[in-house]
Amino acid sequence: MKTCPNCQSSVNDNECFCPNCGSKVDAQQTPDVNANNNNTQPNCNQQAGGYYPPQQSGNQDINTTPILVWSIINLLFCCMPLGIWSLILSVTLNKKPTRQEAEKNYKTAKIICLVGTICGAIFQIVYIILMVVGAMANSTTY
Questions:
Q1: What local confidence, expressed as pLDDT, does residue 50 receive?
Q2: Residue 45, exposed/middle/buried by CB under 10 A (0-12, 13-18, 19+)?
Q3: Predicted TM-score (pTM) of this structure
Q4: For residue 10, what is the DSSP state?
Q5: Radius of gyration of the chain from Cα atoms?
Q6: d(Cα 11, Cα 31) in Å, to the nearest integer?
Q7: Which of 111, 110, 104, 112 is nearest to 82 (CA)?
Q8: In this structure, what is the dihedral angle of CA atoms 44, 47, 51, 52, given to the nearest 10 degrees?
């Protein structure tokens, strides 16, 4: 048995990839002392057939859920154009080729959401004030 260098789980001697995490296991690793002494090494450079590890994006650790929810709330209740813009940025966040571009889009979406929320709040306050003033102006006393 070999040990996976990524997740430290046990891997059979005839396997090239870890069944737990999909990382490539070095075929030249020395097997355990208790393993059988057959000298057949797997051909891990073979491309046809077999198990291929999942492709990992470099942006997987960016949590997009909070900014996505905030964008949807902005879209529905505050400022629709800014909500749409921030929603597009937050949905395409993990599709960026580099982590720096993804972080830049995350910060941009966060700023747009903040501006949209502030604009929506100001609009609601002004609307309420105008409604109260209008209601007071229309009321007549007899």
A1: 56
A2: exposed
A3: 0.50
A4: E
A5: 29
A6: 10
A7: 112
A8: 100
